[in-house]
Amino acid sequence: MKLENGDSHDQDGVAEKLYTELPETSFTRSISNPEAVMRRRRQLQLEKKLQQFRSKDGGPDTGGTLKIYGEALCKDVPYKTLLLSVRDCAGTVVREMLDKYGLIKTDPSQWCLVQVTQQPGCPDSEYILDDDECPLNILMTSSNTAHEFESLD
């Protein structure tokens, strides 16, 4: 930019002066990928929560992940994986599932968690969990049969 008389020296001098006279600081700002930052933040939160579940005395872990099939909540997203404690009850799991599917204002008492047990050569059996039953504990203490947990209305 130039002054009316064509002299640009004063403007450049002010900019140069401001740039060089700023105090040095240890604070630096960097441009980062927000998705990578959020992914890393989620990973750290999961690691912290998993660390709480790990047994320090070599006993069984007190938590883990559980895949919940929520097609009744959203056809486009067939399941969500939750990080749970063996003490988390079905009522809590239903609330977390509704939150994960973005149904925050939905009444959790209108939904239930269903345990589907699959054994080769046998028809699937379904069991509606009471709100105080703990699905991860059921899964960790059951036999080798395959279980699915579904949210149903």
Automatic annotation (TrEMBL):
GO terms for molecular function: cell adhesion molecule binding. Residues 62-153 form the Ras-associating domain. Coiled coil: none annotated. Gene3D superfamilies: Phosphatidylinositol 3-kinase Catalytic Subunit, Chain A, domain 1. It comes from the Eukaryota. InterPro entries: Afadin, RA_dom, Ubiquitin-like_domsf. Residues 1-34 are annotated as: Disordered. Residues 1-19 have a biased composition (Basic and acidic residues). Residues 23-33 have a biased composition (Polar residues). GO terms for biological process: regulation of protein localization; signal transduction. Pfam families: RA (PF00788). One of its GO terms (cellular component) is adherens junction. PANTHER family: AFADIN. This is Ras-associating domain-containing protein. It comes from Diabrotica balteata. The lineage of its organism: Eukaryota, Metazoa, Ecdysozoa, Arthropoda, Hexapoda.
